[in-house]
Structures are given as structure tokens and as C-alpha cells.
Amino acid sequence: MHLPTALKDTVIHGSYRYPFAIHDARATNEEQLMLYLHWHPEAELLLLLEGDALVCVDDRSYAAHAGDVIFVPPYTLHAAYTLESPHCHFLALVFQLSALCLNNNRVLEETYLTPLEKGTLRFPEHFSPQNDWQGEVCRLMLEVTRYRDLPQRDCDLLVRGKLLEIWHYMYLHARPSATGNPDYDRIQPAIHYIRERYRSPITVAELAEQCSLSVSRFSFLFQKEMHMSAIPYLQEYRIRQSCALLLSSNMTVAAISMETGFGNLSNFNRNFMRTVGCTPTEFRERANALRRSQESQTLSDDSDSTNRQSPSTRNRS
Fold it and tell me: What is this structure's pTM?
């Protein structure tokens, strides 16, 4: 997948010595955008502490509720929006895979890390406290909240320990990308078709034809696997592409509406408002302001953390 350079996160998450960072993200119902669309080379675990949110991870969307955890793989576009909650609060644990301390052991690295990096295993991304094993991931992330105000040197081993436990559950429940889900494999040609041709009009019949399925069978499988029907998925994918263009280019809103397959500006504005909760122009302004604010806050937090460290620790970092 092509990752726009303009959407690369400029925030520094940890260091070589401490390859992780813990952040807070909050929003009210007047601020529907929580995490602007971006990517970074680190992995990320998002714990929703309060409210309800829609979290977009690449071409997948998850409705998250308080207590849920979302995993974002490295080098993956992601964003988050509130879902009519008066207040919304995320705890984000952003970490380099080296924080798992497996990189110096070739066998462990090839067993537990390489499958994610190569895409041969599909790791679970949405965890609910109501599910037995997923609840363990949520519990472990909740314990990480105790470390958010500590300097990294004071919680280094504690965070790494929680990450190893979380990775244990994620790895146990990962599945082969190509053969783990036959129903998903059946509809995958339609997903590729959408990604390649979303700029043009697309019908459900066309998508079903790509999969050699009847319209009714295709519609059933698509709803089952993607948790939405095909046309809303197409519209959401177009919106996601438009968000990337709004943040990574100087194209006008009208030009972006044509580039992403909406045909006319009024149709684009209507769909964008329904999905994101604001107009494209407001999204561009708010996202850029939010990005500047979060970058500034992180730089301030890093500075405070560095000042709390001893001179010898600072030099080793």
C-alpha cells in the first residue's frame, strides 16, 4: 500500500533506549476528530477509556466502546472519530517492535515478529473485555495506564512485560493471511476491485461478478466479513482516500470530490458530513490544527521527561 509522505507522523515515539511512548487523546462531541489520519513505523495499541469511537485501520473500521482495545500494525494508516459521545478518551501505547526484546534472538524474532512484518499472519485488531482471551489484552492495557505519568526509565521493564503478555495472546490468535478465512478469501477480489476502481461508478453486481458469486450470496458474505454492505464500504473507502488527499495535498475540495469518485461536490459534502461529522474544509482545518497541537504537546512531554532523567541516563538515550 502506498503511504503518503505527508501523512507520516512527525511525533517522536520513544527512543533507541526506550522504544515506546504513552499518550492521551481526548475529545468532546464538538471535536469529532480524535486522531488525524496518519501512519508511523511503530505499532500502536489504543485503549478506549471513555466514550464510543470509530477507529479506522487501513481499510477496516471498528466501532469501539469504553474498555475496548484496537491494535494498529506498523506502517498502517489510521484515524479515530468520536461516535456521539459527550466525552471520548484514548490511551495510546506506541512502540517499536524492538520493545518486545526479541530482536537479538533470531529464532524468537522469526517466530513472533517476522510473520507480522511480512504479512504472513493476520493479527487480531479489535479486542473486547467481554471476550475471554480478548479481555486479558484489555486488562493488561488498563494496567499500562498506571505508567503514563512516569518517566520511561521508571517503567521500562513494566511496559515491556505487559507488551510481551499482550503479544502472547495476539500471536496465539493470529491466523494465516491467505488461508485463515475462506469466506473473506471469497470476497477479496471485490475488495481489490474497489481499491483499484473506486474513482469510477461501481455496482454490487460488478463486485459480485469479480468473485464469481450471485448478488445475494456476495452481499451475505460481504456483510458477514466486513460488518457492512458493499456500497457503504465503497463510500467509506472513498471518504478515507479523500481524507488522505485533504491532508497531503493542496487540491481543492471540488477537485478531491472528483478524484475520489463522488461525481459532484454536493454528493461529496453530504457523504463526508455523514461519515466524519464535519465538512471537508472543516476536517482539513481541524486535522492540521490537531496535528500541530499533538506534536507540540508531545515535544513538551518529551522535554519534561528528559529533564526528570539523570544526566547519565540522558546521555545513554
Answer: 0.69
